[in-house]
Design goal:
Elements lengths: L16 E10 L2 E5 L6 E4 L7 H7 L7 E6 L13 E5 H7 L11 E5 L6 E9 L3 E5 L9 E10 L1
Antiparallel strand pairs: 1-2, 1-3, 1-9, 4-9, 5-8, 6-7, 7-8
């Protein structure tokens, strides 16, 4: 355990490096959960966590295991109807498997324009010639439960 000069546990500061387990969930259950695998390591202020999550961590001492309730929209913003887009099946066939059968609620991965990464959309509706994808974060517009176990603070 890291300690300060007066033998107090180190606390999370704006520039801390953290090792932690965390779970983010909304009303419909877990979306992100590191408790089942390796802990996450991240640098505060680097954009790896949403600003509201970093703010919730500030001042917590190393060794803390807490569950924090964050208000709707504070972590991933409000749902944006402009983040829903119909894609023609012909476009989807060009991008992937021409025999793909899309189901409402299914998560589909798309390549970024530079082809170096991916982003996900959730199938919101299906028609004969197009599929409606919702590109909002699954927890957008929802209250978020943030469970955290701070393993290390440097």
């Amino acid at each position: 355990m890291s300690t300060t000069p007066n033998d107090q546990p180190a606390v999370v500061q704006a520039d801390s490096f953290l090792t932690l387990h965390y779970r983010l969930s909304g009303a419909q259950g877990d979306v992100i959960d590191t408790f089942l695998g390796q802990p996450a390591t991240l640098s505060m202020g680097s954009g790896e966590l949403a600003p509201a999550l970093e703010a919730a961590l500030l001042g917590l001492p190393e060794g803390t295991h807490a569950t924090l309730e964050l208000p709707a929209g504070s972590v991933f913003g409000e749902r944006d109807p402009n983040m829903q887009q119909w894609l023609k099946r012909s476009v989807l066939q060009e991008m992937g498997d021409p025999q793909e059968q899309y189901q409402v609620g299914e998560v589909v991965q798309f390549p970024t324009p530079d082809l170096k990464g991916q982003f996900a959309g959730v199938v919101a509706a299906v028609s004969d010639d197009a599929v409606l994808f919702d590109f909002n974060h699954p927890l957008a517009g929802q209250p978020v439960t943030f469970e955290v176990q701070l393993i290390g603070v440097l």
